[in-house]
Write a structure and sequence with these properties.
With 283 residues, the protein is α+β, with helices and mostly antiparallel strands. The protein is built from 5 helices and 16 strands. The longest helix is centred in the N-terminal third of the chain and has 27 residues. The termini are far apart.
Length: 283
C-alpha cells in the first residue's frame, strides 16, 4: 500500500472519529425529551346507548370494575329493622356560600357524570366509629339510584365525604313529592346553572343542610362503590331511611336539567345491609 492510500485512510478514520465526538457533545447539551402530556379527562360515558351503564366497562380499562366488581352500587334495599350498633354522627353546619355546577365530568373528588353538583366549604362531616369524613360536595340523581323494596324515589341526593386517607363515605337522601316546597332545595333551584359547563358562585346563601335531612335519622348502611365510572369500591354508604318531601316543581326543575341519570341496581352478592340510628349535631 503506497503512502498516498495510507494517508487517505488515516484522514477518513480521523474524520469519522471527529463526527462521533461532535454527536456525543450535542447529545449531552440537548434539552431532555419529555413525553407528550396525556389528558387527565375521563373517557366520555353516559346513561344511554353504547356509552350507557351496560357498556361502561368496555369504554376504558380503568372502568373494568364496573362489570367485574362484586361490591357495586346502587342496590335494592329491603326494609329491615335489625341494627349493628355502629356509631354514626352527622355534623352539618349552615353553609354561607357554595359553588353550583352543571357538568358532565367532575374530576375534583369523583366523576359524577351528568348531574347538578354543589361544592361546599369545609366544616361539615360524618363520623363513623371515630373516623371523620369531611363533606366535599353533594349532587342529585333523578330518579333515585337506590331502590327501597324494588321502588325508585323521584330523586336522590348523594353527599360525598372524604377522610384524611382519601377513603369515601356517601350519605344518601331520598326525596318524595309533597305539598310544600323545601326551603333549602329552593335555594339550589333558584341558582341552577343555565347550561352544562356553567358554574354559579352563591354568596350569603345560608344553606342549611340539616333542613334537607329527614327528622328521624336512621340509615341503611352497607359497603359499596361509586355509582359512576370508575365504579371504585370500598365506599361507605348510608342511605337515610325516611324520605324528605319536596314539591313536584322542585323535582321537575332538576329532572329538566339532568334527565334520567340513575345507574341500575347492582347485585348485593355477599353483602348485608343493616339499619342503625344516626345522631345529628345541629349548629
Amino acid at each position: 500500500m503506497n503512502n498516498t492510500i495510507r494517508l487517505g485512510l488515516m484522514l477518513i478514520v480521523l474524520f469519522h472519529a471527529a463526527c462521533q465526538q461532535k454527536a456525543q457533545e450535542q447529545n449531552q447539551t440537548a434539552a431532555p425529551v419529555t413525553p407528550e402530556k396525556v389528558s387527565a379527562r375521563p373517557t366520555h360515558w353516559g346513561y344511554e346507548g353504547n356509552i350507557g351503564p351496560a357498556n361502561w366497562a368496555t369504554l376504558d380499562p380503568v372502568y373494568a370494575v364496573c362489570a367485574n366488581g362484586m361490591h357495586q352500587s346502587p342496590v335494592n334495599i329491603t326494609k329491615i329493622e335489625a341494627g349493628t350498633g355502629v356509631s354514626f354522627k352527622l355534623d352539618y353546619n349552615t353553609i354561607p356560600a357554595f359553588k353550583i355546577q352543571h357538568t358532565e365530568h367532575m374530576e375534583e373528588i369523583i366523576d359524577n357524570g351528568h348531574t347538578i353538583q354543589v361544592s361546599v366549604e369545609e366544616g361539615s362531616s360524618i363520623t363513623v366509629e371515630g373516623k371523620a369524613y369531611v363533606l366535599k360536595q353533594f349532587h342529585f340523581h333523578t330518579p333515585s339510584e337506590h331502590t327501597i323494596d324494588g321502588k325508585h324515589m323521584p330523586m336522590e341526593m348523594h353527599m360525598v365525604h372524604q377522610s384524611d386517607d382519601k377513603s369515601l363515605a356517601v350519605v344518601s337522601v331520598m326525596f318524595t313529592i309533597g305539598d310544600v316546597a323545601n326551603e333549602n332545595i329552593a335555594i339550589i333551584v333558584a341558582n341552577l346553572p343555565d347550561a352544562k359547563g356553567d358554574t354559579k358562585h352563591v354568596a350569603d346563601a345560608g344553606l342549611n343542610i340539616n333542613g334537607a335531612l329527614p327528622a328521624n335519622s336512621f340509615a341503611y348502611h352497607y359497603i359499596g362503590s361509586l355509582t359512576t365510572p370508575p365504579c371504585s369500591e370500598n365506599v361507605q354508604w348510608f342511605v337515610l331511611r325516611d324520605p324528605v318531601p319536596v314539591s313536584a316543581d322542585q323535582i321537575e326543575a332538576f329532572h329538566a336539567r339532568i334527565g334520567n341519570n340513575n345507574r341500575p341496581v347492582q347485585g348485593l352478592n355477599d353483602r348485608s345491609v343493616m339499619l342503625d340510628q344516626v345522631s345529628v349535631e345541629v349548629d
